[in-house]
Automatic annotation (TrEMBL):
Top-rank taxon, per record: Bacteria
Transmembrane segments: none
GO biological process: polysaccharide biosynthetic process
InterPro entries: 6-PGluconate_DH-like_C_sf, NAD(P)-bd_dom_sf, UDP-Glc/GDP-Man, UDP-Glc/GDP-Man_DH_C, UDP-Glc/GDP-Man_DH_C_sf, UDP-Glc/GDP-Man_DH_dimer, UDP-Glc/GDP-Man_DH_N, UDP_ManNAc/GlcNAc_DH
Species, as recorded: Acetomicrobium hydrogeniformans ATCC BAA-1850
Domain UDP-glucose/GDP-mannose dehydrogenase C-terminal: 342-438
Signal sequence, start to end: none
Family as reported in the entry's similarity comment: Belongs to the UDP-glucose/GDP-mannose dehydrogenase family.
Gene Ontology molecular function: any one: oxidoreductase activity, acting on the CH-CH group of donors, NAD or NADP as acceptor
The protein's name: Nucleotide sugar dehydrogenase
Coiled coil: none
Length: 453
């Protein structure tokens, strides 16, 4: 009789949170209100959940509570409406985690100077979370990390208070799939992958995302598969970016137009996907995520040679751009040292203001080390912090361009840049993104001052 009562009690407890999720009466907490966390919080609130965002930066908290948006992928009107009607609010008081039925962890997972994973944000968040956890709570880690983190790092911390996973609380991993600036795929319509520590964990996490997204939710057998899926996605990209960059270097030496080659190869309807060269790779995923696997693979005595080589090739590109510009200036009988160089676009990706891991900043470092006088123009990044100092975007007018010795296009913005003016007024242009000929229609072969990567 006692055993039956216990089983019935556990079944009732397990169904309580599930019912809250499926009826959208659960209160959802989102820890980390950056490029991943804020769009996720907004979509959960739009779906009908009451959402409480957590962040250690008071400025972000205050902006959200005032209905002020600071993330490009969030519609400002949506945020303003959600905060006004009480569906979304934010706090830096982490004791309020106890109010939540569901908690999503969306904190940074950077690499250190030796390309080793820095899980301090995840660990600190877990420590704080463990102090305020309660029974019948779902925790989902969304931060990108190496396979095993959820079960080997997060679970022991969350269990130290005596709660049993799959019985007293539920733990899952579902990797973020944010592509900043993507006009087609946003948080709401991007398919989700989820893996739970137990079948009950998976059941609750899958129900959560199905209640929020207008996209399929793909369940895998454990958090490790979900963690590895994210790594595979971005390893695919880093390797192919490296291939495109290496082909650009080889084609330059052979006197071949790499952009024309890629365009020609892209006509094949199968077996080829176009990737394009550039001054390097940037953002919060491609330069970072694959090296989490490199770190983890060493624990099983395996070296991910392809990932490491791809990283080396991509890391070389800022140096290659600098050498290429130096050669072009040399042809004009000008030294790089003392030359005035304008970097056109400082963001890592076109039509956005994100400078995380931007290769343009690395090109800047290389040029400055060679003695060049570097300024930048970016219609999306009016100011940027670099080496502890703030820099302001210059104006892009005829006088500024004519005074420069060279312009290096390091980001393919399609808005806010007068490429016709750049083409007309600049004495020398190195276009690492092949954007000028696309916008202006100029034939690269008939324009001696315009050069490609």
């Amino acid at each position: 009789m006692t055993l039956n009562w216990k089983l019935e009690g556990e079944a009732k407890l397990m169904s309580t949170l599930y019912e809250k999720i499926t009826t959208k009466s659960a209160k959802v907490g989102v820890i980390g209100l950056g490029y991943v966390g804020l769009p996720l919080a907004v979509e959960k609130a739009k779906a009908g959940f009451r959402v409480l965002g957590f962040d250690i930066q008071r400025e972000k908290v205050d902006k959200i509570n005032r209905g002020e948006n600071y993330i490009g992928d969030v519609v400002p009107e949506d945020l303003a409406t959600l905060t006004k009607n009480g569906h979304l609010s934010a706090t830096d008081d982490f004791s309020r985690i106890g109010e939540c039925d569901v908690v999503a962890i969306c904190v940074p997972t950077p690499l250190d100077n030796f390309k080793q994973p820095d899980l301090s944000y995840v660990v600190n968040t877990a420590d704080t979370l463990s102090s305020f956890m309660h029974e019948d709570m779902l925790v989902v880690l969304e931060s990108t990390t190496y396979p095993g983190t959820t079960e080997e790092v997060l679970l022991p911390i969350l269990s130290k208070g005596g709660l049993k996973v799959g019985q007293d609380f539920y733990l899952a991993y579902s990797p973020e799939r944010v592509d900043p600036g993507n006009l087609l795929y946003k948080t709401k319509n991007t398919p989700k992958v989820v893996g739970g520590c137990t079948p009950q964990c998976l059941k609750h996490a899958k129900a959560l995302y199905e209640a929020v997204l207008q996209a399929p939710v793909f369940a895998v057998s454990s958090p490790k598969e979900a963690e590895m899926a994210k790594i595979l996605e971005n390893t695919f990209r880093i390797v192919n970016c490296a291939l495109a960059n290496e082909m650009a270097v080889v084609c330059r030496k052979l006197g071949i137009n790499i952009w024309e080659v890629i365009e020609a190869a892209s006509t094949k309807p199968f077996g080829f996907m176009p990737f394009y060269p550039g001054p390097g790779v940037g953002g919060h995923c491609i330069p970072i995520d694959p090296f989490y696997l490199t770190y983890k693979a060493r624990s099983v005595d395996y070296h991910t040679r392809l990932i490491e080589l791809a990283g080396e090739i991509n890391d070389y590109m800022p140096e290659y751009v600098t050498a290429r510009l130096q050669d072009l200036l040399n042809d004009e009988r000008k030294p790089l040292r003392g030359s005035k160089v304008i970097l056109l676009g400082i963001a890592y990706k076109g039509d956005m203001d994100d400078v995380r891991e931007s290769p343009a900043l690395k090109v800047w470092d290389q040029l400055e080390a060679k003695g060049a006088d570097v300024t930048y123009f970016d219609p999306y990044c009016r100011s940027v912090k670099r080496k502890g100092k703030a820099y302001e975007s210059c104006s892009l007018d005829e006088d500024m361009l004519k005074k420069a010795d060279a312009v290096v296009v390091t980001c393919a913005h399609t808005k806010g840049v007068d490429y016709n003016l750049v083409l007309e007024a600049s004495p020398l242009i190195l276009d690492t993104k092949n954007i000028i000929s696309k916008v202006t229609g100029v034939d690269i072969k008939s324009c001696p001052k315009l050069h490609l990567l």
